[in-house]
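All the exercises in this workshop are built on plain-text protein records. Instead of coordinates, the fold is spelled out as a row of discrete tokens. Once this layout is familiar, the rest of the handout is easier to follow. The record below serves as our worked example for the rest of this section.
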Amino acid sequence: MSILEAAIGWVAPPQCVACGKEGFALCVACSTSEIIAYGQQCWLCNRASPRGRTCPKCRGGGPPRFVWITTNYEGAAKELVKIYKFGHQRAAAAALSRLMVETLHDFDTSAELIRLNYLIVPVPTATSRIRQRSFDHSALLARAIGRQLGAENANGLGRRGQSRQLGAKRPDRLSQPEGNYFVRLPQIIKDQNILVIDDVVTTGATLKTVTKVLRAAGAKRVDALVFAKRL
């Protein structure tokens, strides 16, 4: 946490979205009782799939090999994302990143994570959203995850246009990401194992698109870590 974020937390400390306890966007007790694990499922079809691997039926279109999801987008999880993205509560990044890193450790051992040596890359946020929120929620989350994993992170992806997934109909959500994303830093992507970070996944179109452009830039492997799946 930066000095600025700590100062903001001291002036206006967060309250747990589930129980109201001061000092936490989601307290440890509520993290355990209110956040239901997504589990070993394919991220696209919700079928059981060992270690959260994209199942054979959903591998068309070039999705990530693995997409690890913490929970479903409902209840306390939904409220946590809302106060983070729309309530200007930067402190919520601590709770989100902690839960996401715990999810990653549920599926990969420390030794495996060291072997993979991921480069952490966030899904880029539309510049209009950054101006509205006064911070880049995706980049902030990726930095917090990188610190906890001891992994490098980079804003290696860029975004064209200002289209929003929130509120769009499903056909529009599926078509919107095409051509919206590009690799900004191909020299650091080539031959790397990439862990893409996003807060919420719905149709999967965005993750498929960024995976395609990362692989086209020479990424060796692309997986993703996501906080919540919108049903």
Observations:
- The longest strand covers residues 193-201.
